Amino acid sequence: MQIIVETGLIILGTVVSYLIGSMPTALWIGKAFYGIDIREHGSGNSGASNTFRTLGKKAGAIVLLLDIIKGLTAACLVHYYFFLEVGSIRYVNLQLLFGLSAVVGHIFPIYANFKGGKGIATLLGMVIGIHYLSALACIALFVTILFSTRYVSLSSILAAVFFPLIAIIIYKNEEPLFIAFGIAAAVMVVLTHQKNIKRLFAGNENKAKLLKKHRH
User: Fold this and answer.
1) Could you give the C-alpha distances from 158 to 82, 135, 182, in angstroms and in order?
2) Which of 51, 162, 172, 202 is most buried, judging by how many CB atoms fall within 10 Å of its CB?
3) What percent of the chain has pLDDT over 70?
4) Which residues touch 90 (CB under 8 Å, ≥6 apart)?
């Protein structure tokens, strides 16, 4: 009986996590406050990067924060599963399951005809919820590359590729599924950025406007 209950709760958590991730924050904010469908502008993605590019820094920052919270919330749902020992392999594995469900929801949102963003911010929120030190290391690399090159796509790709290396250093062989997840996440980020990679090699990728130039 206990196994049935636990399985049911895990399935419920997976579905709830997907629904949380499916919330198209960029789409909703674009329509509610700017009267536009973000998917019809810029890169066509319903994510933070395209929001920054299309709607500006304020809207972009809000969408970025909300998308991070989606992944963080999904990973933290496990805290309510009292039959799991905090920090155990099963506990972390369930965090991975719920977090990935939120990422899938962000990429294929049921509320927006399954057309969403690339899932980077939601993925970051998930990692923060599981192991915040790994997330901080990736954020530091992302920011360094971004301010060096002004390419958001390149920063995201390199930070994602760096992530499984951090996971191996931290967990070694204690959390094989987390390491496998890191590798899979890196592959996913590379695959979802194929167009960006082509533009980077062609030299026509868009650069982020990080600082305003003041006139004297």
Assistant:
1) 37, 13, 13
2) 51
3) 94
4) 84
